[in-house]
């Protein structure tokens, strides 16, 4: 056991939340901060080239390479479940889409926690505090923050035609999805800087690492938290580095901050004796705090990838399938930092109502000028586009739990997709809504033909089966250590992100969300970290 010096704060996980916290907490030169990351440095070229996510996901250089259990709702399929294992965490491998969600999301957080600090009004102030927006500052956006929000550096004619078709179908054009009501269709804003991916390591940690009061340890896997079984006081962290077991301790008034994500934070809590007693007992782990909500309430956005063949218009399929096309793509990025190599995985977005009974837009489209059978495979040889649609407010709830005390053994991840009548109903409605958009006049000249799932699926039961065949994660797991009121037995955290029943321990990441946001989840995770920084640095 190697004993290291005391710290005021120990942050576990250098991802979307951890990197921001490291910068905020080291602004006080009198506070010593330790940041522990299981992965390596982010000095891997494919992290920084936007299209490089293709080479980072399912790559042990940057990804934990998790998989789900076989999902009943997906007709027995198991999915890849990428989570970043590198400085920057998931911000180093995600889709780079900057999305805050809707006003109603934050009102649901206030209702769940009883704390107005999580209202849209207060969340918006935090978003603006770290934002550097591509246009002028206004009531919705600000300039000068660490997080650059850029316009995309490419357009595709087929995307413009899909946008026109969506407008014809009743979805208004939008140039900003981040004003609290994202109903509309338009190109996504992205987390990029001059054509390069912006991850939280670059935006926050790079400057913080110049400070003498920050220590960053990479390739170090946290085995468990150090907790006094009598006082229930978390006083440090045990981790494995280069085959040795190391221990770091916090000062008397210090805190341990768990920012390992909706999967990783659960694993560390359970290995430390915090979780459902029945599950911990099965693994022979002494129970420190019986919190049955740990690992429960898993929510994710299931995307249905609908593919349409088109004629008379070029897509990336044919451009990227020729040697000359690939050379031109590479040359454009080298000279201009634009073109397909600069693109986020999805370029055009749309937020819509799957049915009139919805109170706000409840489905999100990620539209791409390409198609393929499944992630990691070659593009199709024919021209096509993909309209992926996800249910923004799923009612299905899943779980994640450790299967072993060994930190390198993957957990059991069970998203439980399409397990409710409501989610199955929205899935069927989403497929019908997509067909309605595609049959509009704007796309008619290109004779769109539904390749996947196929027009043979017509009834509700048929469409639910089709959804199970083509559905896949869009990488937004949240909620597994949710905040909640004192009378909520499944709440793991209070409204200030403190673990119930354990002193000097907080969880600050996407797992804290009581309800998933209506959009991509990276920016809300940073907003949660900004709130934690407010709490930790207040006098």
Please characterize this protein's 3D structure:
The protein has 539 residues and is of the alpha/beta class. Among the domains are: 2-36 and 200-298 and 478-537, FAD/NAD(P)-binding domain (3-Layer(bba) Sandwich), CATH 3.50.50; 153-187 and 302-391 and 416-473, Cholesterol Oxidase, domain 2 (2-Layer Sandwich). It has helices at residues 18-25, 45-48, 53-56, 103-113, 120-129, 157-168, 200-208, 261-271, 277-282, 316-320, 323-336, 421-438, 460-470, 522-537, and strands spanning 2-12, 33-36, 66-67, 80-81, 131-133, 147-149, 184-187, 192-193, 196-197, 214-217, 220-228, 233-241, 244-258, 274-275, 289-290, 302-309, 348-352, 363-368, 384-391, 399-401, 412-414, 449-452, 471-473, 505-507. Strands 1, 2, 10, 11, 12, 13 and 24 form a seven-stranded mixed beta sheet that branches. Strands 7, 16, 17, 18, 19, 22 and 23 form a seven-stranded antiparallel beta sheet that branches. Helix 12 crosses helix 13 (460-470).
Brief overview, please?
This is Choline dehydrogenase. Its cofactor is FAD. 26% of the residues lie in helices and 22% in strands.
What would you report as the Rg, rounded to the nearest angstrom?
A: 23 Å
Number of helices: 14
Instruction: Please identify which CATH superfamily of the domain at 2-36 and 200-298 and 478-537 we are dealing with.
Output: FAD/NAD(P)-binding domain
Enumerate the spans where pLDDT stays under 50 for 5 or more consecutive residues.
none
Instruction: Indicate the overall shape.
Output: globular
What's the helical proportion of residues?
A: 25-40%
On the 0-100 scale, what is the average pLDDT? 95
Tell me the major beta sheet. 7 strands, mixed
Gap between N and C termini: 36 Å
- Counting DSSP E segments of at least 2 residues, the number of strands comes to 24
Architecture of the domain at 2-36 and 200-298 and 478-537 in CATH?
3-Layer(bba) Sandwich
Question: Based on helices, strands and strand pairing, what is the structural class?
Answer: alpha/beta
Portion of residues in beta strands equals 15-25%
CATH third-level topology of the domain at 2-36 and 200-298 and 478-537: FAD/NAD(P)-binding domain
The CATH class assignment of the domain at 2-36 and 200-298 and 478-537 is Alpha Beta
């Amino acid at each position: 056991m190697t004993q290291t010096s005391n710290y005021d704060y120990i942050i576990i996980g250098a991802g979307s939340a951890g990197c921001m916290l490291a910068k905020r907490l080291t602004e006080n030169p009198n506070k010593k901060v330790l940041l522990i990351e299981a992965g390596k440095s982010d000095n891997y070229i494919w992290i920084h080239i936007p299209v490089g996510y293709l080479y980072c996901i399912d790559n042990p250089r940057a990804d934990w390479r998790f998989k789900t259990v076989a999902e009943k709702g997906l007709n027995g399929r198991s999915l890849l479940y990428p989570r970043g294992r590198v400085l920057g965490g998931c911000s180093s491998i995600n889709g780079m889409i900057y999305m805050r969600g809707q006003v109603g999301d934050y009102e649901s957080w206030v209702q769940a926690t009883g704390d107005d600090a999580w209202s849209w009004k207060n969340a918006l102030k935090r978003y603006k505090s770290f934002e550097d927006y591509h246009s002028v500052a206004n009531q919705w956006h600000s300039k000068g923050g660490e997080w650059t929000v850029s316009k995309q550096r490419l357009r595709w004619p087929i995307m413009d035609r899909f946008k026109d078709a969506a407008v014809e179908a009743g979805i208004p054009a939008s140039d900003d999805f981040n004003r609290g009501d994202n109903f509309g269709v338009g190109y996504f804003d992205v987390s990029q800087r001059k054509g390069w991916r912006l991850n939280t390591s670059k935006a926050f940690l790079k400057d913080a690492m110049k400070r003498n009061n920050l220590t960053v340890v990479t390739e170090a896997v946290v085995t468990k938290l150090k907790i006094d079984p009598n006082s229930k006081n978390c006083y440090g962290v045990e981790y494995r580095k280069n085959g040795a077991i190391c221990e770091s301790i916090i000062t008397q008034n210090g805190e341990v901050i768990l920012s390992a994500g909706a999967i990783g934070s659960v694993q560390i809590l359970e290995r430390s004796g915090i979780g459902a007693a029945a599950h911990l007992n099965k693994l022979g782990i002494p129970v420190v705090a019986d919190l049955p909500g740990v690992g429960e309430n898993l929510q994710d956005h299931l995307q249905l990838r609908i593919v349409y063949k088109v004629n008379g218009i070029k897509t990336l399929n044919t451009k990227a399938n020729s040697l000359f096309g690939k050379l031109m793509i590479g040359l454009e990025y080298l000279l201009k930092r634009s073109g397909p190599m600069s693109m986020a995985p999805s370029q055009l977005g749309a937020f819509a109502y799957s049915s009139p009974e919805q109170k706000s837009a409840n489905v999100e489209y990620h539209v791409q000028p390409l198609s393929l059978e499944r992630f990691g495979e070659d593009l199709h040889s024919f021209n096509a586009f993909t309209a992926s649609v996800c249910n923004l407010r799923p009612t299905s709830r899943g779980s994640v739990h450790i299967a072993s005390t060994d930190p390198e053994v993957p957990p059991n991840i069970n998203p439980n997709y399409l397990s409710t009548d409501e989610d199955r109903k929205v899935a069927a409605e989403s497929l019908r809504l997509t067909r309605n958009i595609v049959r509009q006049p704007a796309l008619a000249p290109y004779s769109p033909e539904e390749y996947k799932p196929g027009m043979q699926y017509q009834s509700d039961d048929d469409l639910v089966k089709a959804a199970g065949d083509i559905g896949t994660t869009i990488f937004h797991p949240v909620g597994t250590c949710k905040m909640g009121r004192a009378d909520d037995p499944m709440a793991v955290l209070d409204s200030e992100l403190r673990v119930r029943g354990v002193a000097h321990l907080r969880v600050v990441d996407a797992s804290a969300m009581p309800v998933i946001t209506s959009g991509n989840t990276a920016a809300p995770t940073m907003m949660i970290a900004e709130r934690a920084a407010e709490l930790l640095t207040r006098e």
